[in-house]
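@channel sequence for tomorrow's demo:
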Amino acid sequence: MKTSEDLKQFLRSVDGKGYPAYKGAKGQYRFPGYVLSIDHVQGDPFASPSRISIRVDGNNAGFPPASYDMEYKRVALSDHLLRKFGEILEQYRFKAKGSGKSGLLSISRPGQEILDRTACRINRADGSLSFRLEVGFPANGRTIRSEELIKILFDFLPSCAAEICFYHSYPDQKKRQIHEVRKLAEDQQFLRSRLTDLGLAAFVANGAILPRQSGVSEKPMKQAVPFQSPAAMEVEISLPNQGSIKGMGIPKGVTLIVGGGYHGKSTLLKALEKGVYNHIAGDGREFVVTENSAVKLRAEDGRSVKKVDISAFINNLPDHRDTVRFSTEDASGSTSQAAGLAEAMESGAGVFLIDEDTSATNFMIRDRLMQQVVSRDKEPITPFVERIREIYERKGISTILVAGSSGAYFHAADCVIQMDSYVPVEITEFAKKAAAEYGEGIFPLDLPEINLCRVPLALKTGGKEERSKIKVLGQDSLKIDHEIVDLRYVEQIADAEQVAALGFFLQYAGARLIDGKKTLVRIVDELEYRVKEEGLDFLGEKGNLPVNLALPRRQEIFAAFNRCRSLTF
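structure tokens (generated this afternoon):
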């Protein structure tokens, strides 16, 4: 392996030359305490930045094995180190001068959720630590300014590494932070593991801060009302480090969240949506946890649907379209929500999260007067209210539903929570009594069975030998070659880096897994197996892994495949 001095000599030898001469820097170099790898060199100073990585072996890194010996602890430690590395790196952005992206220093900037990312990874097997980042190699126009790059590689990055990469040099305060990260991760994992034992779909700790600062900030709202469980729903759980905590346990089954407008119904549901992820200390939702496979369902007018069995909800369409293998390039609100429900079942969802405000009304309810005016044999839609009990009792899938304008679901509910000025009140008995006085709910028994019908997955255009081009369009969508995959309504995506990873999953599956024989379930199973064995590294081309990927859940992988129009079933 070459030394850092070899790199410095090379850089000085190309100073003042044309930008392509930087390509000769690609390779690995041993620096004091770590190995620097220049993995990709940009074509010019205005192109996407160069990619580099730093690797510290386990002996030099020296982090306590107890802080990364389990996968959830490894992810939490990596997340913490990445945040700290990024804080220091920020001080050096564009301190090296030049044209275009010269002097850019960029690494992933995590939000409130703790995600497994390619930007920082500690290896459970040997404790080695790696960071992946982007650097704009400096130039004037397209003329190399190697002394500026020497500043970056020999001054700025070594300073960042010295601050973060070597546990043995940490002062006591920084060591305590590492232990606090481990303890929080252990408590969060323990809490998740207790949900099933306690028969809960979700748990919200007393004192949690659920509202966010704004629609564009996921940080906790200042001076928000802390959450306080209704006494009737309060559950006490003893955590291994923090000790006893109390909070609201939402039982498995059918739970309604009701209340007046602006009283906090959707705020609670949004917290439960993101409760499938762990959150950093200080977020306010550290102990808001939802069953890991929970899926937010909504109407998605205009989305494509490919051979999904929606016959449990929609039948006998006037145009005689097949609803057992339903396909469309422009779904309505009701058909899109029915398809989303079936797809979520296929992904293994254990909880449905639904907000009346973002649902198709005709999919959710059909009141008595409408049933009298338009007879059942003239209505192709069986509303969700008529199947919600069966979905839980036969399929074991719970539903947590925000309802603000219709009382139709009171008859089917196991638990009713009223949000009153951001404070939850348990009103199940009162709601059930009122529903009984109003009249019985209508739950027909002669409904078709809820099934899933999928044939093997195949590309419309056949297998592709060349690699697709992927472009992330924020957190809402991605572009693969000429196709835009719309993910706006996949509301549990927490980070644009998850969208980037979804693009690479689609690309990898299109090139290696989709063969017209494998089902979508099998394809996702194989992707998850590769992730378990190798992390996201297997997605890298010729060993070069993108620096900005974050691992999505199984449910979001399914959602991306189901919304990719170039795939058919």
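heads up for whoever presents: The mean pLDDT is 93.
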